[in-house]
Amino acid sequence: MKHTLDYVVSGTSYMRLSNPNIAFDETNTSIVAMLIKKLVQDQFSHKFSLLYNAHTEHSFGDRFKPYHEAAHSIHADSGGLQIVTQGMTITDELKEKVYRNQAKGANVGMCFDEIPVILTGERSDRNDVKARFFDHENYEELARKTGRNVKKQLEIFEEEGSSCEPYIILQGNDVDTYLRWYECLMEEIPSEWHTRIGGVAMGAAALGTGPLEDVKRAFIASEVAKTWPRDKMHLHILGVGSIRRIVPYLVFCQNGLYDNVEISYDSTTHSRAVETGLFYMGQGTTKFNRQMSNLYREMYQNCMETINLGVELDEFHKLLNTPSMKAKEEYGNLNTWLYVRTAFILMSIRNFMQHLEQMLLDKDALLKFTKKMKLDGQFRNLYNVKNKDDYIAWETNQYLGGAMKSMAVAKEMPVSLEEMFE
């Protein structure tokens, strides 16, 4: 089966797409739309979509409307993670406000998911797996509460006459708890609305964030697909900043496990290329600083091979290192600044897409990449996984899953302080 992936760019504030001087200027929005169509839409087995946070970036829905024709879809995150990490409480009123924003501004609305973890402190960041434990006692009720959140989300979408589709987020600590979470969640939603659910994402909060956990979530998605209410299941992969994070999904695209699965993934890594000094080129990331160097020449030439930037090298360097207001004062408008900056960011994304497509279509290229990761044997054998028994055998083999780095959330809270640091 031929797969088409959907690159969903997040961190769009880094691209200044919602800046009033851009979003409310027809010339500027036309520049952005043209560049999206030319550089990243329907390129290298990819669609291209935009994402905003319906809580922290609530104005973006309206401001993205000029880009709707160019983008494949508009995704609106619920903002639940940001609310919790800020120590705030998610109220019913806040949820409803987010749902109505999604209904009016987006094609896809991520749900509010309840997190089945017990924290040892007030907060725990994404990679701090030692500061949280799986809440096995309450996870089924939390799944049902997530299902009720989705039911309310759908009710508001119906009330608003919106075609926006919820994406549900599943949580768990192993294959069985993820699948049970899915069952409990769906039981809370009227069956006639099941086909209104547009897609699913595998949350990591109660499982962990290591390479082994990436493979585990990828496999679990194939099990969910067996009972998905549509002919094909849309799987959204959260936070893909590098090729290595998506490798297990590519394996399952190639071995047939994902024959009924469509994939999208979101990333902030490339949208902030100008701020972080990271440009994807030559099948890898080039790091650059503010000083003129040969790297600027290489990046300039890479862009010019696909699109005429309309400026010389020195001006290219200058524009990438000039704030918007200063550029507006100097040029009288933001047209040139926006064109060069957006083309640069989208070229980084395009290069990433091209590299990803190469491995999506070529098993040998993918295995060559896994060899560089020093995981050739593990992924070569992952091709043999066709069902749950195969996966368990792979995961428990000391030379396969057992040899991969794991950053797992513990299944239960330790009984003593000493156990926390073992």
Show the helix and strand layout.
Blueprint: E1 5-9, H1 20-23, H2 26-39, E2 46-53, H3 60-63, E3 74-77, H4 80-85, H5 92-105, E4 108-110, E5 117-119, E6 132-134, H6 139-159, E7 165-170, H7 175-187, E8 199-202, H8 211-225, E9 233-237, H9 247-254, E10 261-267, H10 273-276, E11 278-280, E12 285-287, H11 294-304, H12 313-320, H13 324-331, H14 335-361, H15 363-372, H16 376-382, H17 388-396, H18 417-420
Parallel strand pairs: 1-2, 1-10, 2-3, 3-4, 4-7, 7-8, 8-9, 9-10
Antiparallel strand pairs: 5-6, 11-12
Which short descriptors sum up this protein?
422 residues; alpha/beta; 8-stranded parallel beta barrel; two-stranded antiparallel sheet; 18 helices; 13% strand; globular
Description:
- Helix 6 crosses helix 7, helix 14 crosses helix 15 (363-372) and helix 15 (363-372) runs antiparallel to helix 16 (376-382).
- The longest helix has 27 residues, at 335-361.
- 44% of the residues lie in helices and 13% in strands.
- By secondary structure, it is α/β, with parallel strands linked by helices.
- The mean pLDDT is 93.
- An eight-stranded parallel beta barrel has the order 1-2-3-4-7-8-9-10, surrounded by four helices.
- Helix 3 (60-63) links the parallel strand 2 and strand 3.
- The protein starts with a strand and ends with a helix.
- The chain has helices at residues 20-23, 26-39, 60-63, 80-85, 92-105, 139-159, 175-187, 211-225, 247-254, 273-276, 294-304, 313-320, 324-331, 335-361, 363-372, 376-382, 388-396, 417-420, and strands at 5-9, 46-53, 74-77, 108-110, 117-119, 132-134, 165-170, 199-202, 233-237, 261-267, 278-280, 285-287.
